[in-house]
Specification:
Strand content: 15-25%
Order of helices and strands: EHEHEHEEHEEHEHEHHEEEEEEEEE
Oligomer: single chain
Number of helices: 8
Number of strands: 18
Shape: globular
Helix content: 25-40%
Radius of gyration: 21 Å
Largest sheet: 9 strands, mixed
């Protein structure tokens, strides 16, 4: 880069004043400062939390925007995004109010911000509140993200993302689960997508199930499935890509204490045919008679299961296959 890009940072806030201070400190300590840092309070019901966040932002020179009606994190991000564009931002970065950034995050990712790039992401690590980031030496090279990669799920953590602020997309109002996956996918479809496999941002809780929205795992699954269907509706996914993605994101394949066991395909290689999701009780067994969801119209011939002893699945209606033999221990 020949000049410092104009990056604004958007942080949605909801009853999280205690963690917000550490988040802001990490964002404000960047080796390459942001043009503007914007906190959007999503009508936090605890007025003391809302007021504490407002005062904190005032003391640190951070823009604070308050919403009167709770509308979800996606709408809060949209409000901040629109504010950033109005103030001349060329790029918009997102950070959740309980996450933190490595001091060189914006500097490292700015190296990838060039004409034609629509989205840039990076690895996210899990740290306790006092644990330092791993050493970043700048030697790791970026990789490209394609639509085919989206078939396997969302590769971007929200707090890792920098978007082209001029993109004609926004978070869908009313969506609270996997709403970010939809935006990132549309951004990948709109231009070049780069990913830096370097731990430049951190969460301070388990990725799933600890608290917050991701604790609602079944709703997360439904949100992912809805996103996959939207990608097919808008022709971001081809029919074949949709079939692969839908097989693993169907809500019917999620239940408490489950684990994903492998792949199913119509040929001897895992890369042939389709993917199916097999979820079984927590002991990792795929039992005889287990119904495995697969994409509509594709369970029409035996499937070979990869990662579970190579067992054969036989057709069982339009959306399922049934395990022959077993029990089979997951590989």
């Amino acid at each position: 880069m020949t000049s410092t890009p104009a990056i604004s940072v958007v942080i949605p806030h909801y009853n999280a004043a205690e963690s917000l201070e550490q988040t802001l400190d990490s964002v404000l300590a960047q080796s390459q400062p942001a043009q503007e840092v914007i906190v959007v309070d999503d009508a936090s019901p605890d007025l003391s939390q809302r007021e504490a966040a407002r005062k904190l932002c005032g003391s640190k020179g951070v823009t604070f925007l308050g919403q009167e009606v709770n509308s979800g994190p996606g709408v809060a991000r949209n409000v901040g995004w629109d504010h950033a564009v109005a103030n001349g931002a060329r790029w918009v970065a997102f950070c959740d109010s309980d996450d933190t950034w490595h001091p060189s995050k914006l500097e490292r990712q700015s190296e990838l911000l060039e004409p034609g790039v629509s989205i840039v992401g990076c690895d996210m690590v899990t740290l306790n509140r006092r644990e330092p980031f791993p050493v970043v030496d700048g030697s790791i090279r970026p990789v490209s993200i394609t639509i085919d990669r989206l078939v396997r799920g969302n590769p971007f953590s929200t707090s890792s993302v920098i978007l082209d602020a001029s993109l004609p997309i926004r978070f869908t109002p009313g969506r609270n689960y996997c709403e970010d996956y939809e935006v990132w996918g549309r951004a990948v479809a709109a231009g070049k997508a780069a990913y830096l496999p370097e731990g430049l941002c951190a969460r301070h809780k388990a990725a799933f199930g600890a608290s917050g929205l991701s604790a609602q795992l079944k709703k997360m699954a439904r949100g992912e499935y809805d996103t996959v269907r939207r990608f097919r509706r808008d022709r971001i996914f081809s029919p074949a890509q949709y079939a692969k993605a839908a097989a693993c994101s169907s809500p019917s394949s999620w239940h408490a204490g489950s684990c994903c066991l492998g792949w199913a395909s119509t040929g001897p290689s895992p890369d042939e045919g389709i993917r199916a999701a097999a979820l079984a009780p927590g002991d990792g067994r795929l039992l005889r008679g287990s119904r495995v969801p697969v994409a509509a119209g594709l369970a029409v011939r035996p499937l070979r299961w990869h990662g579970c002893g190579g067992r054969i699945l036989r057709p069982a209606g339009d959306r399922h296959a049934v395990v022959r033999g077993g029990p089979v221990r997951a590989a």
